[in-house]
Amino acid sequence: MARDVGSVQAFEEALKGSRQAVAYFWADWSEPCKQMDAVVAELAKQYPAVAFLRVDAEKVDALTERFGVETVPCFVLLQDGAKAGSLEGADPSALTQRVASLAAAAPAAAAPAPAAAAPAAAPLGVQQRIRSLLSASPLLLFMKGTKAQPYCGFSGRVVEALRATGHGFDTFDIFADEEIRQGLKEYSNWPTYPQLYLAGELVGGCDIVTEMAASGELQQLLDEKLGAPAPKAAAAAPKAAAAPAAAPQQQQQQPAAPAAAAPAAGGAAPAALAARLEALVKSEPVMLFMKGSPEAPRCGFSRKVVEALRSEGLEFGTFDILSDEAVRQGLKEYSHWPTYPQLYVNGELLGGCDIVLEMAAGGELKGGVDEMLHRTT
């Protein structure tokens, strides 16, 4: 079975007994990691000669930095202690193939295992899977997270816009399937998420959907294509959104209104802390809560976000959450975002490392920040 290692020393000790190893970088907040836990456990049974080491990416910063881990789940393959390859994302078939190749250098007793794993490497083609998903739902949102718990503010805003129309809709968590996450970008020629589809056709991403919602075009389009929503469904949507027991995570996850999230923080922490957090997130137009400082980041995720912001020429303030435990814990409740770094624009949560890096890779980071600065001014 996989072995948890909580320090560099424990990691080095674990490597001594095996020529082949897989370092599995994970985080407890990541849904894809929960999926891959079962895959790793099964692979550990199939390949006893390979050491599987689970590393909490946020707690063992030295290892995260050493292997250049930027997202979770991430798998680093090691041969005689040296990096032999890596794999990012939740892709069971790809991981199985990589481990099989790594284990080929193991003792002969382990060699037959790859043949047993071969059937898992032939899933449906990703384009076919995408078409099947679209045909199964007239209104489908590919998003980060779920309706009840969006994992980014952009996904949360689209969910709110759709709820307001009274129409039912389905969602697909792209964090749960790396093949869909990457394949849909090519299918739609749209590089970012969320993506909303109506009758199999791409409507657009967050900016387009929220603009259409503000102008009334979204309601009109959905009514024309899907028919007017039943009065009961239309009446139920606002009630579900407002009821704390029905959708607390979704309501609080929405980063568009930090002021609305403050009571949640106040309920779990003193009112003075909630007020301090609100002041901190608004202390600079662009504010990054990170581990360490821009000159000396203390985790790879924070360093990557700093590099992304600097590469776009964006000015930003920072706060070292390692210097203040009350802020470190309280901000997680305030924002309902469980990890660091956290980037805020005019007091709104933009997101964490994965969102910032994805926007940067898609050429949307500066434009997204500028849009939020103008919209919230």
Automatic annotation (TrEMBL):
One Pfam family from the UniProt entry? Thioredoxin
Please tell me whether the keyword Repeat is annotated for this protein.
no
Name the keywords, alphabetized.
Answer: Iron, Iron-sulfur, Metal-binding
An example of a GO molecular function for this protein is: metal ion binding
- A single Gene Ontology CC term: nucleus
Specify the Thioredoxin domain's residue ranges: 1-104
Q: Which PROSITE patterns match?
A: GLUTAREDOXIN_2 (PS51354), THIOREDOXIN_2 (PS51352)
Q: Does the keyword Iron-sulfur apply?
A: yes
Q: Which InterPro entries match?
A: Glutaredoxin (IPR002109), GRX_PICOT-like (IPR033658), Monothiol_GRX-rel (IPR004480), Thioredoxin-like_sf (IPR036249), Thioredoxin_domain (IPR013766)
Start and end residues of each stretch annotated as Disordered: 239-262
Single Gene Ontology BP term? intracellular iron ion homeostasis
NCBIfam families (alphabetical): Grx4 family monothiol glutaredoxin
Per its record, how is this protein called by name?
Answer: Monothiol glutaredoxin
User: What species is this protein from?
Assistant: Raphidocelis subcapitata
